[in-house]
Write a structure and sequence with these properties.
Blueprint lengths: L1 H8 L8 H14 L4 E8 L5 E7 L12 E6 L7 H16 L4 H9 L1 E5 L4 H6 L36 H12 L2 E8 L2 E6 L20 H14 L19 E3 H4 L6 H8 L3 E8 L9 H17 L5 E6 L10 E4 L15 E4 L4 E8 L6 E7 L9 E2 L2 E2 L23 H4 L8 H13 L1
Parallel strand pairs: 3-4, 3-5, 5-8, 6-7, 9-14, 9-15
Antiparallel strand pairs: 1-2, 2-4, 6-8, 9-11, 10-12, 12-13
Helix pairs in contact: 1-2, 2-3, 3-10, 7-10
């Protein structure tokens, strides 16, 4: 244990291969057993563990009212900056807990999951680092993991990989509220949707989600707190990003991306952070990358406390799982539902909203809420719903959303879509039928 703790204390600015990364994570957990929980969510094609370190006051399990946050890096094995800065983020969090009041409150009120590498095989396969491209981008089966998830707009024919399946199960088993996916090769914060159709605005070169305002805020939160991302200059004269952000589809269309999957099927808002123009830069630049991203990484985590949260219960105070809870005017095609504890979390910007709670077979309950900016208080507004007509028999109902393209029906699901779009929806549906 002493050796592991010493290894944890000796984190330096260089690239850590699989054994060193595992040793470091084990050392952190050994040195901070009450603040951290280390586990593997699965294995890569070559059998390497997909390690996740969880940090918080209750690291081993979900606690009612405390939101779940995650960072995932190194999804493309040759995009390496995120992998290393997440190790330094871990080091910063555990060393600041109990000393820095902001970090202490953050960890006391947030359960933070950190996966330094989603593609360890690709990282180890990158023998000659390159700024632009290597075969290590892909997993051992030659698949791009950020094209490997179910897609909300079209059938994704890619075979689901072990790394992808592990993350999908992870998302299913946790109540993630907010996430970011760390990449390299550009300098920008990209947000949902990555794919689209005429219903979401693809004909105008922008694919808009029902929560577009929240996604823009999230992307700007990161870019504005980054040392240079907010300048929007990109990596060359051909590529500029105003304020350092972009809608994913506006940048380039992507099928089977992880951020869209999180949002549609995981009820988790995720953005993609491109952190370096060079995919695999020299190790002597890592310290600067950490300095450039340190504040942004922390400020982004705080956004998990935006909006409103609460529980839905029956007449006896028992939690009701699978109740639909959404803000009026921004319904999702895969309705956002309560977890096993009857909890919901909705990320919303400050303002007035009508929250609609629905238990199938019973009359919906509407409540108007005035949502403040509570990120500085590390707690979203609390609004519970109690259904006096509902007995605990409703708890046996299990609802899942199909893994098929869904967004051809966005017009009927979201009030954000204009009535004139219905013709486009009808045309799209007819084309699908004829095909």
């Amino acid at each position: 244990i002493l050796c592991l703790a010493a290894a944890a204390a000796a984190l330096d600015f260089r690239y850590h291969h699989t054994e060193e990364l595992e040793q470091y994570l084990r050392g952190v957990h050994a040195a901070h057993p009450s603040l951290t929980h280390l586990h593997s969510i699965g294995r890569s094609v070559e059998g390497r563990d997909l390690w996740v370190l969880v940090l918080g006051r209750f690291p081993t399990h979900h606690k009612i009212g405390i939101p779940e946050f995650k960072y995932v890096a190194n999804m493309h094995g040759d995009e390496t900056v995120g992998r290393e800065i997440l190790l330094h983020l871990i080091d910063f969090l555990v060393s600041s807990y109990g000393r820095d009041p902001v970090i202490t409150r953050l960890l006391n009120n947030t359960r933070i999951h950190i996966m330094p590498t989603m593609n360890p095989d690709g990282f180890e396969a990158t023998k000659v680092p390159d700024c632009y491209y290597t075969r290590g981008r892909y997993n051992r089966n030659g698949e791009d993991l950020n094209r490997n998830f179910p897609d909300a707009f079209e059938n994704n024919s890619a075979s689901i990989q072990p790394e992808t399946r592990a993350v999908m199960d992870w998302i299913k088993n946790e109540t993630f509220v907010l996430s970011a996916n760390l990449h390299g090769g550009a300098l920008v914060a990209s947000y949902t949707f990555d794919n689209g159709n005429p219903v979401t605005g693809s004909l105008k070169g922008y694919s808009r989600s029902p929560d577009d305002d929240v996604f823009i805020h999230l992307a700007k939160t990161y870019s504005s707190n980054h040392a240079s991302m907010h300048k929007g200059t990109g990596c060359d004269s051909r590529q500029t990003f105003p304020e350092g952000i972009t809608n994913g589809y506006s940048w380039y269309q992507l099928e089977g991306g992880m951020q869209d999957y999180n949002y549609v099927w995981g009820q988790c808002f995720e953005i993609t952070l491109e952190l370096s123009c060079c995919k695999y830069p020299p190790a002597d630049q890592l310290e600067k990358f950490w300095r450039d991203n340190k504040v942004a990484l922390i400020e982004y985590i705080k956004q998990v406390h935006l909006g409103v949260k609460g529980q839905v219960t029956d007449k006896n105070g028992n939690p009701i799982p699978n109740a639909i809870v959404e803000a009026k005017g921004r319904a999702h095609v895969c309705p956002y539902r309560t977890n096993e504890q009857g909890e919901y979390f909705l990320l919303l910007l400050p303002g007035t909203y009508v929250i609609n709670a629905t238990v199938p077979g019973f009359k919906s309950m509407l409540k108007t809420v005035e949502i403040p900016d509570n990120t500085g208080n590390f707690s979203a507004l609390k609004q519970d719903f109690s259904f006096p007509e509902v007995s605990d028999q409703i708890r046996s109902r299990v609802v899942s959303c199909p893994k098929t393209p869904l967004y051809q029906e966005l017009a009927r699901a979201s009030a954000a879509v204009k009535p004139t779009i219905h013709i486009l929806v009808l045309m799209t549906t007819m084309l699908v039928i004829f095909k």
